[in-house]
Design brief:
Blueprint lengths: L2 H14 L6 H8 L3 H13 L3 H11 L2 H8 L8 H9 L3 H8 L8 H25 L13 H17 L2 H20 L5 H24 L1
Helix pairs in contact: 1-3, 1-8, 2-8, 3-4, 10-11
């Protein structure tokens, strides 16, 4: 259900930026990647070249490479369902299907979850685009909706795991990524932070496994 307020925020932000309203539902059908869709609004307004859009999209969605390592695509039968499963792999659907009770969903149930989520995102963006026609320009803050959602997911994850180690590892990886991005290679924060974080939690997992043996 979180897709509804997020979609509304996206639709309002897009129309408030001077982009035609129909681009909101159209982009949700063709792109379907919440964070990059919010950034795409700025891309369209600024008229950035295609290569810069492609590079930024790769950086922002780089985390999906790691999602693919454990996404249960083997349960999806047929090329169409597999292709859609990859296309519709979002943070939320990955979180549902890779852990907890969702890890036992059948291929058909996974597809249903993804289709329903996609539909909510489309409808939310369409509603937001229509509302954006009447929302005053003085209303600000819609671009923060996605950040707020990620913060909520992070807080809930910490509460569920009850472990400060993962938070400390994430902060450390983020600090290193910031230093590398600022002083070594620009626009590398997300890639460096993610790779380092994955390496750290992998090492921690292996250490715990060895201790258990």
């Amino acid at each position: 259900m979180a897709y509804i307020p997020l979609g509304v925020a996206f639709g309002v932000l897009l129309t408030a930026s001077g982009v035609n309203w129909y681009w909101a539902p159209l982009s949700t059908l063709l792109i379907y990647a919440g964070s990059i869709e919010f950034l795409a609004v700025g891309f369209m307004v600024a008229g950035l070249p295609l290569y810069q859009v492609a590079f930024t999209s790769l950086i922002v969605n780089f985390r999906h490479i790691f999602y693919g390592l454990s996404f249960p695509i083997g349960r999806l039968r047929g090329r169409v369902r597999k292709a859609y499963g990859v296309f519709a792999l979002t943070d939320e659907t990955y979180g549902i299907t890779s852990a907890g009770p969702g890890a036992h969903l059948t291929g058909r149930q996974i597809t249903v979850v993804q289709v329903v989520s996609h539909a909510w995102w489309f409808l939310g963006a369409l509603l937001g685009a229509l509302l954006g026609q009447v929302v005053p320009e003085s209303v600000k803050g819609f671009e923060f909706a996605l950040t707020a959602m990620f913060l909520t997911l992070a807080v809930n994850a910490v509460r569920s795991s009850r472990s400060a180690a993962l938070v400390l590892l994430a902060l450390g990886a983020g600090a290193v990524g910031y230093v590398v991005d600022r002083y070594v290679v620009g626009e590398s924060f997300l890639v460096v932070s993610l790779l380092l974080y994955v390496a750290l939690i992998s090492a921690t997992y292996r250490k715990d496994e060895e201790a258990a043996e």
